[in-house]
Amino acid sequence: MPCCCRYTGGRGQEASGQQYGEEFGKINLLRKVPAMKDGDFTLAESIAILLYLCRKYQTPDHWYPEDPIKRARVDEYLSWQHSAMRAHAAKMFWFRLMIPVITGEDVPKPKMDSAMEDLNNTLQLFEDKFLQDHPFIVGDEISLADVVAIVEIMQPLGSGLDVFEGRPKVAAWRDRVRNKIGPKLFDEAHNDILNARNLPDTFEKNGMLDFLKPKIHKLFN
What we know:
It comes from Erpetoichthys calabaricus (Rope fish). By secondary structure, the chain is mostly helical.
């Protein structure tokens, strides 16, 4: 299905600070990724963008089902993940990689242990509540819920933490999502996050280290 939208996004781009550039600011004043430009229409926030694309381009029903119960299950996960999976997976990525890179200091062990506990509890909830014994979150077919979930769950891998180890059910679900999306596209989409350890070189080249350091100190001190 053709799409004329311009999409700017990815956690690798966010981590490298591209959202603070002048060009990005013309698309999204919120300075967050992802962002989208469709003709003269611009849109921020990943969930809003995904739903817009589904509705405008009439994507196959399984992505955002017309069936009210299935759609409610997708909406349920999309509503939950903001303050749960997204928050805790992203925190682990920042605690283990980004903060040490930017500040030159490790996160204190009590904070790290607490963040790890939150992530483990969230992954267990994901397994017990959302995945259960289904191939995908909504049942037998992949949906937007799976796409949003895998993006967040892959984040800690960028910091060297394999959250799939010891979780065979979640690992098998990841493999099914990868196969449905297509291995090549899946791997391309996660290339930046899986190579996030190269960010120190990127920061050195683009001067973002000095820009980000006071922001991080303000947040965590």
